[in-house]
Design goal:
The structure is a homohexamer of 318-residue chains. With 318 residues, chain A is of the alpha+beta class. Helix content of chain A is 37%, strand content 17%.
Chain lengths: 318, 318, 318, 318, 318, 318
């Protein structure tokens, strides 16, 4: 909630500054975290308690309704605001999310929020870079990914999709994890722990005459072949990736953590992903996402720049 | 600001309760003051300071924008609010209007706000009653005047217009002042200290051939005869009053204080009115309003019930 | 339809008067009936026929659309209306609901509508009072319940919830029935004739291992334990009641008639309620509603004041 | 008001039928009159009185607000209406415009409305035709002029602009008057009785060094040369006419009556026009409109077909 | 797409001309085709290719979104448009629908689009007339059917429903087909190839005790008796037809082609209809529609006037 | 128009990508020019003619209406667009702004647009940097100025206001001009060629007793003292600058060109500014803007980085 508070304040101020031409919603990007850690530090959850007896979770529904109402109210009134406006918003966030503490205690040591990041957690936030791969900007330059949740207009490094995969593989190998931003509203991203890019025509063929087809019948909406790995996948090119971005079938949906690599019985490579949807699915909260899926649907990743292969770092100029 | 704060809180809560079917604006009624004095007391202005260096007045424009935005935001989100919502609104009011103090000091004595009303000012708020005069409810019953600013749905005593005048005259004679709610967006309520109900036909006659008419000419929009007392006025009946209310030409505009009675050279009776528009007009902030105007355009008055003639009190049942 | 007509006329006039800050919808309150009986009397349905051959019911959908359109049209045009406007609305109501007759005939006697109430039905409408129980106003005063359907801003007497139950029990005992306004959009108010406040945790426990649970399974949305009386209920306090009103989980849904008291095998007390939903449910249109439910979800009741215990009447000042 | 009533009823019904894709406003076309005369006849104003004492004119503002509200209300409710809907609208029109009588008395003779047209006024409505001149439809065919006020989708005969002028001249010569629909929101259509198409460049030249220019100066917005006939005019072609219609600078503004032809000192031909703006301007309600203006800005005319030259009638096929 | 292009251009121009009081949607009427054939001719589909590799059909969803946006944009900006506006719209249509060719080649002969209609297809478009049957206009006159899709305001001949049936029967007998505009959102117009007007009361009776009723049960929403011909039908009168049009239960849904007449085992007459819904239903794209259905729900037909019986043609005046 | 075309295309694509959270209006920033020059080059105006005979300027009003309509249309339809959508927009721009040529001819040499920038004009666009001065980001880092017209999210270098002035002075001295983005909706930015920050209190004092004051009088709205340089100005601090940005009284209005420095009789320094408002004002299109005004109201500047003093460049890291 400390990080959420800091980001909401900045988002509201920017919303006012750009006359409301900004997506004021709950979503955000990885850089919201890294910037906030750098500028304001962070505290442990226990040090910023806010739930009253009987409350089970933060009332984000109401906070969002109020925040949006406040922003729209200010906009309707001409958009100029006094310093009291931001004071008001800070009070609202304090009411709903709790009061940001000035210290946090970890293993008996009292830290300021900023010191907790650097000394307590040992993080150097400037080590973290966002990397993506699209062709509408030159490779090995930076650009701000054009999605509504990138309200910070933060820059990502642009590399080829092959280099993006190389960066990811190298990071895992070296023991770094990766923050993975991806489109998950895809048929191939199942609710059962799998992310693949099935070759639908092949799938349809294998479905004919199957036991499932016999039971659910041709007119039944449930008669789509079920996606179970291993499945024959499409070969993903840089062009297919770009087309998905350009026609907006690839969307900026969700952030997860990649922590390993696995292979199935056919030798197909899968990234192991920690999802935040609870211990659901076949693998209790873990998703196995094929390299094809990652190539196709990754919006961007956040990685420690020390985990990037040297030759690629050189091309990136860092 | 103490009284404003207490009323805004109640208005917001009621707005939420009735699903927004309430006029959430800056306006209100006399009873907002008397109820607030009774329920919460009041403090001296000096004891609730809020202006920052350089600020000249409360930023009501921004407060209204924010309040409305908040209310609309809650309404859009379904209208159910948690206790944090009202806490939020109290914080906002504190930010813009100042923190309501728990005591006020008057002539060296420290009072609680409620004690200040009863002991410091010697007021018994239950002495104050609202009186009006309309025919769509029986006389000598109570009803809630149907105007948007009566968001409290407060009741007024309904008496004949003759009795209303008798109440006012008796109050002035006995040394009480009267809170006077009236329509002031009338041609006859000038910006120059006069409130009359001119007989427009008579006025038009006297205008022809006048010096003013000669100069401004017939096609000039400024060629309306200027209203200067004394002027021949219409005789106002209970029916004319009601018609003004029914067709909404009599509106609920403004609250002032009547403190005296005067007569002009023709013996026409005028009420002496303290207006809050600053020391403007011919009489430096005082208006002379004819009995005809008061009979026609008074929405309601707030008077001390002890200032009401006994026979009328009896009819009112108080 | 006679009563509906009289109320729609008053609602439209008030809507215009308060610049549209009023819920102009089909709903209303018990006092709409009692006021209308007192001011305009009532007639038997047979004396105000309006259905054409082939019509089965009043076209309220179209009448509401037209009424709202009319009201919005007048509002958009500035809100001032001539006397023709209300004449227009009376004509519309006559077209859809029928012409209000000047007499009604009952057991061979011809009555005026007002005489029919007093002489034909033997009712003295001033005997009927609305009673409620909330803590945001002092007990034993009156206040207008803040719900959209209370467009009349009518007052209710405020008593403790124990006194409210005492009033109801006394009325039933003395042979009076009670108009009961309640929230019915509660899980515990089933479509099968029961109104209870189940202890959900207890219910969940008993559900585990039940036959029903075995069949519908854990992921099935229908796997909620079915509510069948007798069931363990929550003990309802004045505070719980108030919280339901304040956070708007208790809503102003529906009006019914309480006509009796019953006990189940465990001795739990139920009020017997005539509902207007037709001969549905287990008891063919009758609902058995536990005292806990009534304590929790009653918005207000309308009772004959002669049915109220003397000590309570004294506290109420009537 | 008889004719207005009949047209409003048809307009409302059509509005409902075409799901609101119709301009429901006060405006209309000449054919509204001719169709209404033919289908419903007409009555003398005295036979359809409606003003109450004190009223000076029909309250069209309120009637329009109500009509629009009603139409929008029905549209929002899905657009399907019962027969009671149109009955409602007839009642509204009766309330505001008066009850359509079944007879009218003229010079002592009692007529039905239809007989009054044919026998009382001696009119054969089928003699009246609308004529226009545009190139986006073939000449000597009929088409519905595409303007919002042509809600009836009525057809006009399309002839060359020379033939249109020939028809008008012939009609005046034979003693017929002409209903003239024209754009009057043109600089050249003055408020002082003149309608011309000034050659603005020529006018600007003559303005330089004039006495007026000397006084009002170059930066003064009133420094446009005043338009006083005679003035040098543009020569109007069929193409210029069409361009004005296509780019919507020629609008469907106003209906007037042409009753004569005059020439000025330079021999320029003017049509003499009775306007309905009261006895205003230099010629007390009469406008002198040059042939150039008529060629340029005429939307359509309604003429008795017997007043059309035979050769043109032949081309028109009537 | 050639015909679609030509019609969209005209619709957009008219939308602008009538200030947007026109239904700018995908729908249209038969006359859109006949007018377009006459004014612009037509080309074979192969001569106006537009799909890119991978595209399966025209993207009408996007074209409609763009067209509507363009029209609304122009309307908001005041509604006056330059010639570049229509050039823009022609370009848009070219982008989405393809470039209208200047010739089309059929059986080795190269035609201009207009010649292709007259010489290639041997059609004389002026032979085709629209016929309908409603009572709110006199029979044997023409009027524009008041439905949103009749954006052209085209006229139809109005004949009795008996004559309409006679025209249809004669056409089929003489070997002409008929374009049939009808309401198809009727229970009796099944998705299985049948169009009838079942006598619902009779149907309900036969349902009781049936095998289907036994299985689906009384509370099941699927428990409506299934409509399978033969079924007892209602006898349709001219009044029922008119009522359906007046209360808008008969809607202007869909255009199909009638090409034959058939009788069932009971001798009931059915029209054989080619639908454009693909080879669906019991008869693989063919519908059997009873005369009762056609009498009730036909909006209008388009027929070759040479196929109309002589006596009816005489009454129609053609 | 070449540059406008290239920018509109990018703005539309970004608008679609970020779901419309972008200000799609006519405005932009200096970087629109520099990016466009770098990515697409530029052509001489003569080589991209588009006005038709009779047209005097580009119809931006209509183009904006159409562009906005198109964008809103796409947004309403879900925001996903096919490649045809951008093709459509390119066609629209071509229709209104002309076809972008593939070459431009300058002094007899034919260039490609990109070559024309580098070889014809000798510009290296990467030399140009945007510089600003605000305290909400650290000095000597880059950030995207948060104003609606910065739709590109371009970065500016952040320096102290003293360094910004030093950069400007050095540039002028070295013979470079400066693109100057500033707030011009200030009282002190007159329509007569002057930009100053008057000390209003001092000005008011000097006004009393002046000749102007005598004539226009105290109540006259024109009685504000006229601003004529030299005038006593406020001393501007970094804090005042930031406050103007934070409360949005400093707005992102207008771009001009600074080409020189001048001093008045008192030695006050003024920047000489070429405005694009035509040869208006006392200095025929030139404005003299005081250093105080520039310190206070400059949003950003675009300068050639070679014109920046070395020590400041070093701090900027370029």
């Amino acid at each position: 909630m400390y990080t959420v508070t800091k980001n909401y304040i900045e988002k509201m101020r920017k919303f006012i500054r750009v006359d409301g031409y900004l997506c004021f919603a709950e979503g955000g990007s990885f850089e919201d975290v890294s910037h906030s850690y750098e500028d304001y530090g962070v505290v442990l959850e226990k040090d910023m308690p806010n739930l009253l007896p009987g409350e089970k979770r933060i009332n984000f529904r109401e906070l969002t309704a109020i925040s949006t109402g406040l922003a729209e109210g200010a906009k309707k009134a001409g958009g100029k605001v006094s310093p009291r406006f931001m004071e008001t918003y800070r009070n609202i966030l304090e009411t709903y999310l709790g009061k940001c503490p000035e210290t946090t205690t970890y293993k008996g040591v009292v830290y300021s929020p900023k010191d907790f990041v650097t000394k307590g957690l040992g993080l150097n936030m400037s080590d973290y870079v966002s990397v993506t791969s699209f062709t509408h900007y030159p490779f090995y330059t930076q650009f701000a990914i054009e999605v509504p949740d990138n309200w910070r207009w933060d820059l990502s490094y642009n590399v080829t999709i092959d280099d993006l995969i190389a960066i990811m593989d190298n990071a895992i190998e070296k023991g770094y994890t990766i923050a993975w931003g991806s489109d998950v509203s895809e048929t191939g991203f199942t609710r059962d722990g799998i992310g693949v890019v099935p070759d639908m025509e092949d799938l349809a063929k294998s479905f004919v005459g199957s036991d499932q087809a016999r039971w659910v019948g041709g007119n039944n909406p449930q008669a789509r072949p079920q996606i179970v790995a291993p499945v024959k996948e499409l070969a993903i090119t840089q062009e297919m990736r770009q087309e998905g971005y350009d026609n907006k079938t690839t969307t900026d949906d969700h952030g997860m953590q990649i922590f390993g690599i696995a292979k199935d019985q056919n030798g197909t490579k899968y990234y192991m992903v920690k999802n935040s949807w609870g211990p659901t699915g076949k693998y209790k909260g873990i998703w196995y996402v094929s390299e094809a899926f990652v190539r196709y649907k990754t919006m961007n990743i956040l990685v420690n720049k020390n985990s990037i292969p040297k030759d690629i770092r050189k091309k990136m100029g860092i």
